[in-house]
Amino acid sequence: MIINGIWHSRPVTISVKPNCLTISLDGPAEATVFSYDYAGRLWTAYLDGVAYRRGLDGRMIAKWRLSGSERCRRWLSREEAAAIEDRCRQQTLALYQALTGDQIRLTASLPPQGHTGFQRAIAFDRQRSEADAERYDQIYKPIGILPPDQYMAVVLQITEGCSFNTCTFCSFYKDRPFRIKTPEQLRDHAQAVRDFLGDGLSLRRTIFLGDANALVVPMAQLLPLLDVVHEVFDVTALGGLYAFLDGFSGERKTEADYRLLAEYGLTRVYIGLESGHLPLLQFMRKPGAPQDAVQAVRAMKAGGVAVGIIILIGAGGQQYADAHVRDSIATLNAMALDERDILYFSELIVDDDLPYARDAAQAGLTPLTPAQRAQQAEQIEAGLRFSPTGGRPPISRYDIREFIY
Ligand code: SF4
Fold this sequence. Notes:
Layout: E1 2-7, E2 10-16, E3 21-25, E4 32-36, E5 42-47, E6 50-54, E7 60-65, E8 71-75, H1 78-100, E9 105-106, H2 112-123, H3 126-139, E10 154-157, E11 159-160, E12 179-180, H4 183-197, E13 207-210, H5 219-232, H6 235-238, E14 241-244, H7 255-263, E15 266-274, H8 278-283, H9 290-302, E16 306-313, H10 317-334, E17 342-347, H11 355-363, H12 370-383, E18 395-398
Parallel strand pairs: 10-13, 13-14, 14-15, 15-16, 16-17, 17-18
Antiparallel strand pairs: 1-2, 1-9, 2-3, 3-4, 4-5, 5-6, 6-7, 7-8, 11-12
Iron/sulfur cluster is lined by residues 162, 164-167, 170, 172-173, 212, 246-247, 272, 286.
């Protein structure tokens, strides 16, 4: 429901959606916008030309564009994030006081859900926000990464860590050993997640099974865990189950396994292929071979599960560039991706403390320039062929520096 009004000569739009409350002040050119989930958490804000997004862990990222189209981002300090939340809450409070004091003429009266949304947003003060972030830290091990289309998922850590943890370019799970939760541990975790999200669950769109490698769990152990997920959440209403499968070892799942997992709601599996060039994968100590990924994708798709494939742009620098492009095209084309799938190009981000940085220096690799990286993604894309009947998968950029849950 959209309600319009004027407040202190400023146009106001209040959008009471089933999943969130959004308040917009002023016209599009100089808009101020706040969105809240129905637990009262600030979700997104747009102030003075800067877009803010608050994660469930209380962290906040600011994004803006410089003149031209250069995109900028910065993670705010806790104090800066709290100041943005305060500013949004104060304006929301002032608007609600004006609304309930009949100082604004609206095109329709605010429905009960709108009142609830305002009241919860106002009650979500600094103390509440800090307590919420602390509770988050008790429930979750840090969530390393999600695919960009899963940032609004409910994450359930049915496993923790990565069963490989060898890749030289990845530091997401170095802080924890791999472990598979028992059904009892998962039940406690899932119930805690559900209670933590509260009415904010309405903003969540899917269920993502974390961490890096949830689907390496053998079927005999995995199915009881999925039963627990179904016990605690309405998987169908939330849009199905999603997960990473990274590297390939241990029990390999068959088409029949994936068909059964699809019945449990498994909808898409994300595979960090990184490259179709085996020597490059070996250089980066990424387990498995491109052919293993092709076989896994075929089994998934035959079983009715879609895939998301991630290619690492810039991997191996100039020395590996031609082979990386050539073999990635061949591997992707062998996967017969279609419109249900997704293909991501993720830029290699090399922090100095990553083993990749050391290995690349020792091997004398020359990194690609930003223009060469863009060109590498274009070259791979240009070589892809899709079946006319299956359609073309969406192809997107994936910037791991912008990940927020
Ligand atoms: S398999 Fe995936 S999660 Fe594990 S270390 Fe490699 S890139 Fe990271």
